Amino acid sequence: MPLVAIIGAGDLGGALAHTLARRERVDRLRLIDPDATVAAGVALDIQQAGPLEPFRTRLDATADPSAALGAAVVVLARPARAAWQADDWLAWLRRTCPTDRQPLVVCAAPDHDAVIARAVHERLVPRHHIAGSAPLAYVSGLRALIGVAIDRSPADIAVSVLGRPGRWVVAWSEATVGGFPLEVVVAPPVLVGLKRRAAGLWPPQPYALASAAARVVEAFIEGGRRDFACFVALDGQSRGTLVTSMPVTLGPAGVSVSRVPPLSPHEQTLLDNALGEGRQG
Predict the structure, then answer these.
(1) Are strands 73-76 and 3-7 parallel, antiparallel or unpaired?
(2) Which residue of 108, 133, 134, 189 sits 20 to 30 Å from the alpha carbon of 228, by its own alpha carbon?
(3) Domain count along the chain
(4) Is residue 111 domain-resident?
(5) What average pLDDT does this structure show over 169-193?
(6) Same domain assignment for residues 150 and 87
């Protein structure tokens, strides 16, 4: 099975490594962090849980960025002892994503939309080789919120999220519960309350982010996954690179944007405004 390299052994990277190990869809995981001692400790802790859970995924750790060379997927998480900005992540991408051996890249943190924009604009990573998984965690939170409000399993609920942080567009008009429109199933006052509370779910926290990133990693490796909400860099931008959440199809060949769900006129206006502001920025 392919190697997955996780850059950053902080809370998010550790949770992601544990999630991927438990699911056993990946044979080898490598934690890479400037603090090699922390990375090694996290990897050992997860590995020692293997006989109890059980799983057989192999983990190792290092501080060497070149250890990501040859990985099928590189995940940007969070470093253990520092808060990195976009410039820091781009410096690591230059060392871990050579043009002759280009991996697929998953940006797992909520603020990594800026990293995607810079990486694509500076041609470090092709736009179809990089995606941000945080919007998928946001969708998961919305499904949980709706499920609690109407006493239904989140598995019965489908909802889409488009746009950007601060300009999110939740497609309430096409959301469903058990195949029925949410706007029919839920009383109007309850729906108003859900819309009011939705903004408070961003940014998602480490466990939800790790679960979302794990699904995106697996989809890149295995293929066949459609309509995941992910940050992607859109084509055809005359100024800069516009990164927004869109439904995507993922596979070993990379990212392709799926059909945007039907939106109400109000939702479409919100999305147009969000994308317009992004282009101007």
Answers:
(1) parallel
(2) 189
(3) 2
(4) no
(5) 96
(6) no
Residue 120 inside a domain? The answer is: no
For 156, residues 6+ apart whose C-beta sits below 8 A from its C-beta are 147, 177, 178
110, part of any domain: no
8: tokens are: 């950053």
Same domain, 152 and 248: yes
Query: What's the distance, CA 252 to chain centroid?
Result: 16
Q: What's the Cα-to-Cα distance from 156 to each of 138, 146, 181, rounded to whole Å? A: 17, 10, 12
Q: What is the DSSP letter of 81?
A: S
**Residue-wise DSSP of 133-176:** -HHHHHHHHHHHHHHHHHT--GGGEE--EEEETTEEEE-GGG-E
Identify whether residues 68 and 150 lie together within a single domain: no
Please give the residue range of the domain that contains residue 84.
3-102
Tens of pLDDT along 15-64? 999 999 999 999 999 999 999 999 999 999 999 999 999 999 999 999 99
